[in-house]
Amino acid sequence: MDVKFVAISILLVIADGFTVRGPSAPLVALGSSVVLPCYVDKPLPMEDLEVKWRRSDTFALVHLFVDGESRPEVQHQDYNDRAHFFTDQIQHGNFSLRLDKLRAEDEGKYTCTVYSYVEGYGRTVVQIKVVERLLVSVSSRSILAYDGEDVTLNCSVDSHITPEYIKEVSWKKTDEDDYITVLLYKNNEALPASSDERYRDRVEFFADEIPKGNFSLRLKSVRTEDKGVYMCQVFAGRLSASATAELMLGFSSLHIPVLVFCFAAAFGAVLLLCCLIYCRSKDTVSSSTIWNLQLSLVLFPNICMFIAFIFWGLTEGSLLETVTCCALYILRPVMLIWALPYLKYLQDNIKTWTRFFKIASEWAVFTVVVYSVIFAYIWRMIAHYNGPHIVLGTCFGLLVLLCLVLSTGGLRLPSQEQSRGASLCKTIVIFVGLCVCFLIFYFCQLSLLIQSLGFPTEAPFIVVFVQALLLPCILLLPRLQAKCKFIFRRWITSLLIITLSLLDIILVIYINLDILKREMDYLEWTSVFAFIEVLKMIGVFESRVTDSRDQSRRQQTETSQQGSNALHLCNEVVYMFGAVGLVLLSSVTLTAELILKACNGEHVMYDMTVVVFASECVFACYWLVHAFWNIATTESTHNQNTAETHEMENLSASVSPDSL
Questions:
Q1: What Å distances lie between residue 551 and 416, 560, 567, 593, CA to CA?
Q2: CA 486 distance to own-chain centroid
Q3: Sheet bearing 97-100, strands edge to edge
Q4: Range of 441's domain?
Q5: Buried b (16+ CB within 10 A) or exposed e, 24-59
Q6: Residue 521 shares a structural domain with residue 562
Q7: In this structure, are 304 and 410 located in the same domain?
Q8: Cβ 574 vs Cβ 395: under 8 Å
Q9: Pair 342, 576: CB distance under 8 Å
Q10: Does 647 map to a domain?
């Protein structure tokens, strides 16, 4: 042994030697095992090669490799079956040690010593820190933010754990029983594409802070739906840990106007109604004062709700919800002024106003507004394609043009004078022209819906052709009845008109449900389209209702006074429900939605259009039923007057001078 030692010492002096390398910094042991690096800068011959791993503090032998094989029988008992070489890597100069079943006592320094009879010897020291538990810390207090601000959610990992040991860091938001991915850090890089669409382009890490173990999240342009509990989850080695932070939101500067205008609309509607009732009860109040109060009741609450929905759209509302609700409330005075002649206490000041406010015009404007939203949505969706733009623009342009044409006269049921004055040939030409117009109109509507919502079954295409015939039939039936009295009686014509009108509304709802059945917000869309259809049918009966209303006013008798008063009372109740009740419902719902959204961070209602348009449909349907009633009662009165006329003619003939 002395000779061998002397020989090795001489060789170490004259040989070039080699360098044993290890990690430049202490190792952090996460989980159940760790690899202690130890390698040389050039391959060594296996003959007379000896590698020792020892604890630096206790000198306990951890592992021994000599003469081409491991010697587990000589290692310390604490490391039995726990310390292993990578035998296939030894020939390449890699003498790293894998230490399994880590314990807290394994923390410390380890020395790797390499002896070679030919090349010499060298050593390196490896220090490991055993981490049995991963610590992740976040803000202990809830974070308060305001809508539109940028906020930082803090999250930091143990300072002794370097980023290369961190496999993954994820920020998630708790959503009932599920989690929404906000941002993900994996493989030493942030992955913005992993973010949920509601957070995309709004979240980021602080890149300069990541090497320090700081994985704080920056959330830009905070919204009310961002409120909630966020979890920062870290995976390092086989360990994982998480911590949660709560984000609380307050009212922003744009939320306050919503509350103010909702309150102004509700309070103003109730106050104006009370003033109107009080002034009507006083005989000394002039009719002009009552008219001014009535006009204020029509305009003021609806304008306030229009402004409230504008601010709602700037903060929370979707494009469809904001535009349709704003359009509805700016157009609501049209229907309210149109219905004013049904109020018995207002008869002197309404003729000038009602001349300019037509339901057909409201239908045309509202239809164009709704389909403008759909058009804008499709245009953004096909922005990267060239061909569909021409088809889309053509469909929308034809739709706008036909709305203008139909609202100026083609949508209205002809008056009795027009029905009697039209020739049969002219009636047939008008019928064919209307069929073509409505076929193009419905085809454009269907094309826009399909391009935005997907291709449905074949049923809507079949229904469109049926629907294109229904409305022209409704419009032309009075003309045909006037020319073909031997075929149709007036009460049969009225019954057919009412039946076809109801069938048309049913078909429209069926088409929309068939197209929208795959959409989450199909109820919102259906309520909007149902309201459009009810408006259209009221516009169809508009001129006939006006005629029957004037005729019934002229023919009113004492015997029918009691029934007429009951009908007028019913009209006033429904009218005040539309002028005041619907405004109260919308303002209270919008206020509650905003407050609950700020408190809970979640929408109670998915879309406000469900409440707004469902209630508005009820109000509009009353006037549609009223139109049906007017037509039916007018026809009944006409038949009665005709019978009385025939009776008087027969009586006159019986007492004529010739008979005497």
A1: 12, 14, 16, 47
A2: 56
A3: 33-36, 97-100, 83-85
A4: 358-540
A5: eeebbbbeeebbbbbbbeeebeeebbebbbbbeeee
A6: no
A7: no
A8: no
A9: no
A10: no
Distance CA 189, CA 166 (A): 11
Asked if the structure places residue 657 within a domain, the reply is no
Give pTM, 2 decimals.
0.61
pLDDT at residue 31 tops 90: no
| 396 and 518 both lie in a single domain | yes
Query: Which amino acid would we find at residue 318?
Result: S
Write the single-letter amino acid at 644.
Answer: E
With respect to residue 654, please indicate whether it lies within any of the assigned structural domains: no
Question: Model confidence at 12, in pLDDT bands (50, 70, 90)?
Answer: very low
Q: How far is CA 85 from the centre of its chain?
A: 59
Beta pairing, strands 143-146 & 239-250: parallel
Angle at 613 between CA 468 and CA 437, to 5 degrees: 15
Q: Give domain status of residue 655, yes or no.
A: no
What confidence tens digit (pLDDT) does each residue in 189-221 have?
888 888 888 888 889 998 888 888 888 999 998
The total number of structural domains in the chain stands at: 4
Angle at 364 between CA 409 and CA 575, to 5 degrees: 95
Q: Which of 96, 131, 166 is the last residue of a domain?
A: 131
What pLDDT score does 262 carry?
93
Interaxial angle between packed helices 359-381 and 388-405, expressed in degrees from 0 to 180 and rounded to the nearest 10: 180
User: Of the candidates 250, 283, 304, which is a domain's last residue?
Assistant: 250
Structure confidence by residue, pLDDT tens digits, 276-286: 888 888 877 77
pLDDT one-digit tens code per residue, 309-353 = 998 888 777 777 888 899 999 999 988 888 887 777 765 556 666
The answer on 312 and 169 residing in a single domain is no
Query: For residues 175 and 163, is the Cβ–Cβ distance under 8 A?
Result: no
Residue (of 74, 80, 86) closest to 100 by Cα position: 80
Q: Which two tokens stand for residue 417?
A: 């004078």
Tell me the two tokens of residue 483. 């020319």
Question: What is the C-alpha separation between 232 and 217, in angstroms, rounded?
Answer: 9
Identify which of 540, 577, 567, 562 has the alpha carbon closest to the alpha carbon of residue 633.
567
Kindly state whether residues 293 and 441 are assigned to the same domain: no
Model confidence at 303, pLDDT cuts 50, 70, 90, reads: very high
CA gap 641, 170 in Å, rounded: 82
In whole angstroms, give the CA distance from residue 15 to residue 119.
6
Domain match, 274 and 159 both: no
**3-state class of 122 per DSSP?**
strand
Interatomic CA distance for residues 289 and 285, integer angstroms = 7
